[in-house]
Write a structure and sequence with these properties.
about 210 residues, 2 domains, 11 helices
Length: about 210
């Protein structure tokens, strides 16, 4: 289950629900790819986004990191339409950075803590014993498995706002009419290509929760 819990929302996210949704999507994605803030944040706002940007940059100064830092110092009480558009584009870039490349060292823990080991093994096409070696760092994660793991992390980020851990596990194993009566798990496994047609169908199914 996601550990992100916010008690309040700051501007401009409070006045612009679409920005709040985009910020949450970036934060959920960062959490499942192993780039969550290193401390709890009770406010949905710039501090949490800046922490994620710093984590994604791994100590390096990135363009989006500079933009997030600059935005965090502004007053957002009377923002213009142009400023809101700029924030929306910034959040899209932050999301793209989080989605960018597999990070198995950071992704194993959040994925395994949400889905059980046997299900993850089935989804990535490896044995549970191999999963334990990869996740512990005892063996390097093969590229194909790292790509499937990254795909799972991104799907979980889409589901996080709508399901608890049980619901997310069930989502992967439940037959879906959009998948011709098969479950996401049925389409995944050893030969699954996240960038192929089945991967696209599964991502669209997960993303549809945000637009329902």
């Amino acid at each position: 289950m996601t550990e992100l819990q916010f008690e309040s929302v700051e501007e401009p996210f409070r006045s612009h629900p679409d920005l709040a949704e985009a910020a949450l999507r970036a934060l959920y994605t960062a959490e499942f790819v192993g780039a969550a803030p290193n401390r709890a944040h009770s406010v949905l706002g710039w501090d949490a986004l800046l922490a994620v940007s710093n984590s994604l940059g791994s100590g390096k100064t990135t363009l989006v990191g500079i933009q997030v830092k600059e935005a965090s110092t502004r007053s957002w009480s009377h923002e213009s339409a142009e400023q809101i558009t700029s924030v929306r584009q910034m959040l899209e870039r932050l999301l793209q950075e989080a989605e960018g490349s597999p990070r198995p060292a950071g992704e194993w823990q959040p994925v395994l803590s949400t889905l059980d080991e046997d299900l993850v093994a089935r989804l990535v096409g490896a044995s549970p014993s191999s999963i334990r070696r990869y996740s512990s760092g005892g063996r390097e994660t093969p590229q194909a498995i790292a790509e499937r793991l990254h795909f799972i992390a991104l799907v979980l980020a889409e589901l996080a706002g709508s399901y608890n851990d049980y619901g997310m596990r069930r989502w992967f194993t439940r037959p879906r009419s959009a998948l011709d009566g098969r479950s996401p798990a049925d389409l995944m496994g050893k030969d699954f290509n996240p960038d192929g047609p089945d991967g696209e169908r599964i991502r669209r199914l997960a993303e549809s929760l945000r637009t329902a």
